[in-house]
């Protein structure tokens, strides 16, 4: 029988693991989020709705992790006997615990919606778009229902953090609710990361690259794993709440932190492609299809440019090439047409048509006509 009043028992602490876990999650997910926003705003089409929801997910992940660290000042990570006689600390611990429940739900919802919106951006097929919208609606409905239950688990609401026992009312026992929510959440998690696999398998690209994309999306299954691990701790609660809550709350932070990080993984490939082109071949990120070294549709920034310094090439007779490029890009359902024309000079003119049917397909380049000026 453990003596809960012994100095050795009361001196036990999990504070270090709490601080380290949450600090790492804040840092790693923060760097990933910064990379995503930088790549999208600097090299790609700009910040979209999927990026905005991912940012919301990171903000609430940051708040969740920060609150967990602050809770260590109010008994979190120690045995509850250390604060039983301190009503202020006990009340603050319960209030902050209440906050973590809300921030966890918001962060998880925002990250899942971000994945759904990202799929809508890159997969134009009607079936997958309908499934994505259904999934987004289900995830949102799940979030609203869970948030409502958590907020109003006690009547009146403030009884949830009443440490004095002076507030009359009653609270629900949420263990059964947590297990039901876990089952629903697990189903939506699996759906999110299985949904794009058929589209990826149909892509016309080398097997190695296809497997790489599948692996990248498959990383999302880590969220499922962390969710399962978190669920195993739900029945371990006892009267020693400040001590027993550490493991499930740490895994809650890991779940949403990993979710944000994985949502940002595609941006790392784009960052390497644009900023460190020499690493593309080393990491196997370069395209197997060559469009020739003489023609580039993108300047150093990755955006279309008419800067003559971004166009290379001479004919075998050292004749200067003037390039007229017509670009028609259709991504998902959005269409933009931009014409890039170099300054008219004497020499050989090259007209190039480039069409992109979808983001997930390789670019088909056709040299339509060559003509020499008189």
From TrEMBL:
Subcellular localization(s) per the UniProt record: Membrane
One Pfam family hit: Fung_rhodopsin
Keyword Iron in annotation: no
Cellular compartments per GO CC: membrane
Coiled coil: none
Domain Rhodopsin stretches: 35-272
UniProt similarity note: Belongs to the SAT4 family.
The protein's name in its UniProt record: Integral membrane protein, putative
